[in-house]
Write a structure and sequence with these properties.
By secondary structure, this protein is α/β, with parallel strands linked by helices. Helices cover 38% and strands 22% of the residues. The protein has 13 helices and 19 strands. Strand 4, helix 4 and strand 5 form a beta-alpha-beta unit. Helix 5 packs antiparallel against helix 11, helix 5 crosses helix 13 and helix 7 crosses helix 9. It starts with 10 loop residues before the first strand and ends with a strand.
Length: 441
């Protein structure tokens, strides 16, 4: 299984900061230990640093962090402190910064924190400020949102997205702007030679393909495809796994429409089950959105079209049938079928299960990249479209959402993940800075 369905476990460096002359400075060692314990109990991996009270200690801590591979730095200010203590540390190792000053009327911990955040804001450094005792509750919840976003931000900076073939002609906005994508969100695009990939697939072991095909047939309700197409789909899946491993990919997309329709779809279903997102139609931007949601939800995601608003106020989303089997409401309803329009290959057809969902629309933007965000609730549905229909109820009227989509110039591809993670997406956008635009109602 790939890493993207493992829950994000932020790796956080923890310390306390103070100025030795100030009231409350003696609390620093215990505050650092308390903050470390609180975050560790909440599921973070913690690296405990010595308290920081001098410029030399700040520089030494920053140098220690430079090789520590952490996602963020969490500091507990226990008194007023000189802003350069944190600035000097960040010069050695720039990290997203969580500031949790402790209460105390005479300590000035909150004053010092506000003094620092004034400077950080002017410098464009990512941070989040809290205030209150170090204990479970709303402050810890806010801290964890920020730290999970920081962990995701670091994961995205190192991500590789494979593009096999090209984006579909006539879907211009799905083309990645590779430089802007790297600057705004971090992933690097890895071009994959499609003829070489198909040749590799054809050379995959027929015996292994047959064994896998028989396993897949045991997981579905029925199949109406011929065996030759099933074996070809398994060879494509085997080749995809090899390429993903060799190129160390975190997501992949195929320029499937129209000639590869049905040939790569079942591979997408199986890869999604294993935690590797696959977007349709050469949409690198959509694959990045899937990677974001898969990382935040620890569940497979779905690459979809916005299709039809229904009279009851819900909206149907779907693509041709490359969804993870675990998204099916009932496994017995999964049907392996030739793809619509081209009547070839293998797709997995089923209605998608109900539950809370987050949807993202990721596109290039004049200033860099843009993420549009919606949250709603998936409801049970019938097979209203030969694919993986997902029926979503939004808290706003459909006509209001459509007007918003038109006004903002959003694309038709939406990626869906189970769970409401909009708060984390907003935190990610704040970490990415001005090159990423977040659009929400």
């Amino acid at each position: 299984m790939f890493d993207h369905l493992k829950p994000l476990k932020p790796r956080v460096a923890v310390s306390a900061v103070s100025s030795p002359l100030e009231v409350g400075a003696d609390r620093a060692p215990q505050a650092a230990r308390d903050l470390a314990a609180l975050l560790e109990q909440a599921g973070c991996e913690v690296l405990l640093l010595e308290p920081i009270g001098t410029a030399d200690q700040a520089t030494a801590s920053g140098q220690q962090l430079a090789a520590a591979q952490v996602d963020a730095l969490a500091l507990a200010p226990v008194s007023w402190f000189e802003d350069y203590l944190v600035l000097d540390l960040l010069e050695e190792c720039p990290l997203p910064l969580l500031l949790w000053p402790l209460p105390g009327m005479e300590t000035g911990a909150l004053c010092g924190t506000q003094q620092l955040t004034c400077f950080l804001q002017q410098l464009g450094r990512p941070y989040r400020g809290l205030f209150g005792p170090l204990e479970p509750g709303s402050m810890l919840d806010q801290a964890l949102v920020f730290l999970r976003a920081a962990a995701l931000h670091r994961r995205l900076r190192r991500a590789r997205v494979g593009l096999a073939g090209h984006r579909v002609g006539g879907m211009t906005y799905t083309a990645p702007h590779e430089l802007a994508l790297k600057r705004a969100l971090g992933p690097r695009v890895v071009p994959l030679d499609l003829p070489q990939f198909l040749a590799r697939a054809a050379a995959m072991s027929a015996e292994e393909a047959r064994r896998l095909w028989e396993q897949v047939l045991q997981k579905v309700g029925r199949s109406i495809v011929n065996e030759a197409d099933g074996l070809d789909a398994m060879q494509v899946y085997l080749a995809a796994r090899e390429v993903i491993s060799e190129e160390r990919l975190h997501a992949i997309t195929f320029g499937c429409y129209p000639h590869l329709m049905g040939r790569v779809c079942l591979a997408g279903s199986l890869l999604a089950d294993e935690g590797l997102p696959m977007a349709c139609e050469g949409d690198v931007n959509g694959a990045v959105g899937q990677l974001i949601l898969a990382s935040l939800t620890a569940q497979p995601t779905q690459h979809t079209d916005w299709l039809e608003p229904l009279p009851d106020g819900t909206v149907v989303f779907t693509h041709c049938g490359s969804g993870s089997f675990c998204l099916a409401e009932r496994p017995a309803d999964i049907t392996l079928s030739p793809v619509r329009l081209m009547t070839q290959g293998v797709c997995a057809l089923f209605p998608v299960r109900p539950g809370p969902v987050t949807l993202l629309n990721v596109i290039p933007h004049a200033a860099g990249y843009q993420i549009a965000l919606l949250e709603g609730d998936a409801l049970s549905t019938e097979m209203v479209f030969p694919g993986n229909p997902l029926r979503v109820q939004f808290p706003r009227l459909t006509e209001e959402i459509l007007a918003w989509i038109y006004d903002q110039g959003l694309g038709h591809h939406w990626v869906a993940g189970f769970g409401h993670v909009g708060t984390e997406v907003r935190a990610l956008a704040s970490l990415c800075g001005p090159s990423l635009r977040l659009v929400q109602m």
